[in-house]
Every structure is written in C-alpha cells, then in structure tokens.
Amino acid sequence: MTYQLAQLNIAKGKERMDHPLLAEFVENISRLNALAEQADGFIWRLKDESGDALAIEAFSDPTIVINMSVWRDVETLKNYVYSSDHLAFMRRKKEWFTKLESNHLVLWWIPKGHIPTIEEAKEKLRHLEEKGSTPEAFAINQPYEPN
Predict the structure, then answer these.
(1) What is the pLDDT of residues 3-39, one digit of tens each?
(2) Percent helix, strand and coil across the chain, each rounded to 5?
C-alpha cells in the first residue's frame, strides 16, 4: 500500500482572527496557502467555501486556528515549512500567537487518497500528547516511516 503524510498544525491567536493585531497574518494567509499548493509534494489542504481554514472552529476556543494538509512525504513538507516564504511568517508567530502548553503539530501516515477528518487529526494530536512520537502519530523532528 502507498502512503501519504497528513499534518495538523494548531495555533492560539493572541486575539480573534478579525482583530487588528492579526491583520498582517490574515492578509498573507491566502498567499502562503497558494505557495503551499504549488509546492512539490503538496496534495490537499483543509479549507472552507472561501478557500480558507481560518474560520473553521475545530476547538471550543475561537482563537485556536487549524491548518491541516496532506503531503507526499516528510521531506516535501519540511521543504515548504523551512525553505520557502512560509519560514519568515513562522519566525514571527510570537507576534500573533501565544505559546501552547501542549503539542501544536502532529504528523501521521494515511493511505494514498484518504482525506483526513478534523476528528481524526484531533485524535492524532491527543495520541502524540499522551504517548509521544510513535509510528501512529509523530512530531516533525521525530519522523517514522510508513508501515
């Protein structure tokens, strides 16, 4: 069976996304999403009817935003995250987001063609929090090969 890499990334805004403090981040999210969609290895990302995921409330806290996507493998995801314009915004995350006490990023392997659900992603995040990196759910700096 062929596998692809799913990822969930959550962030807790210092304010809601419509607050002026987050304006620069919000103004650039479409550009960063387009950059991801054009990146080598990109397969899919979670989005609503507007093409965005910022309005999707996956948690009871409305300041928590999610990003969920599927990639060919860990390397292509890392290339986008650390070797594109995305990195400049990641370096500025303290301007817009508060530090979470728990894990904010989880990766896991899915069968090719599977589209992960938000509930599936939240379960993977819980798994990582409770058990640490395992082949079922892992951190980007502790990757596992698909089994």
Answers:
(1) 999 999 999 999 999 999 999 999 999 999 999 999 9
(2) 35, 25, 40
